[in-house]
From TrEMBL:
<feature type="domain" description="Dienelactone hydrolase">
    <location>
        <begin position="26"/>
        <end position="231"/>
    </location>
</feature>
<dbReference type="Pfam" id="PF01738">
    <property type="entry name" value="DLH"/>
</dbReference>
<dbReference type="InterPro" id="IPR029058">
    <property type="entry name" value="AB_hydrolase_fold"/>
</dbReference>
<protein>
    <submittedName>
        <fullName>Carboxymethylenebutenolidase</fullName>
    </submittedName>
</protein>
<dbReference type="InterPro" id="IPR051049">
    <property type="entry name" value="Dienelactone_hydrolase-like"/>
</dbReference>
<dbReference type="InterPro" id="IPR002925">
    <property type="entry name" value="Dienelactn_hydro"/>
</dbReference>
<dbReference type="GO" id="GO:0016787">
    <property type="term" value="F:hydrolase activity"/>
</dbReference>
Length: 239
């Protein structure tokens, strides 16, 4: 069953969003060093779960300032049918505005050392990563979708980020033929580098709370992701 906590430990920051409420919430972690490149982490269709919090914490341990916007307003679930309902009821435009607000929030934080931010998303979040990169242009320096794709009508001409994708060869919900076709569209429309990695794994192979978790593939993809982000997120010029 889903729930919305009145005092949600997964919501430790509030930032401006161009929505009716005027704000959105999220979970932020700063590395022990006190600063680092900025990374947006976009949730799966389960919501901002403990698993997503753990991903943010892991990025912070790797030296990144990481923020996961809460696109469901505190609601989470472990039930697939309810997750589908939450996804269908999520206004895409509102989510896009919340994500844009998250980008601005990170870039404005003094702890963030990069001139752009990275965007990393899983499943539903992987689709939002590519949309966000298209909408935010040169504010996104690296885009990393994990086993997620937006609709075939998506316009990628605004993408300025290099793209690194992680997809499973056994993924029945995201066919590799569609993944490869999307990669080619991004290259044609945006002229950016797109690198795809395919793994002997099913959908959601990084989520260690689910039966599809595949440790070897997950760890290899994680290593590739952090290396890519460090290479692509250049330090900002400070006055």
């Amino acid at each position: 069953m889903s729930h919305a906590d009145t005092e949600n430990p997964r919501q430790n920051v509030t930032f401006d969003s161009a929505t009716e409420s005027g704000h959105a919430h999220g979970y932020l972690r700063v590395p022990e060093s006190g600063s680092g490149p900025g990374v947006i982490v976009i949730q799966e269709w389960w919501g901002l779960t403990d698993h997503v919090v753990a991903i943010v914490d892991r990025f912070a341990a790797e030296g990144f300032v990481a923020l996961a916007p809460d696109l469901y307003g505190g609601r989470t679930t472990h039930d697939s049918a309810e997750a589908q309902e939450l996804l269908v009821s999520l206004p895409v435009d509102r989510a896009a505005r919340d994500l844009a607000g998250a980008v601005t929030y990170l870039l404005d934080r003094p702890e963030v050392t990069s001139a752009t931010v990275g965007a990393v998303g899983f499943c539903m979040g992987g689709a939002f990563v590519l949309r966000l990169a298209a909408q935010q242009g040169d504010r996104i320096g690296a885009a990393v979708p994990w086993y997620g794709l937006p609709g075939t009508d998506t316009d990628y001409s605004g993408v300025r980020a290099a793209v690194l994708g992680h997809y499973g060869e056994q993924d029945e919900s995201v066919p590799l033929a569609d993944v490869r076709a999307t990669a080619e569209r991004i290259r044609e429309q945006a002229g950016v580098d797109v690198t795809l990695h395919e793994y002997p794994a099913p959908h959601a192979f990084y989520n260690d709370e689910r039966p599809n978790y595949r440790r070897e593939s997950a760890e290899l993809a994680w290593e590739r992701t952090t290396t890519f982000l460090r290479e692509r997120l250049a330090p900002a010029a400070r006055a």
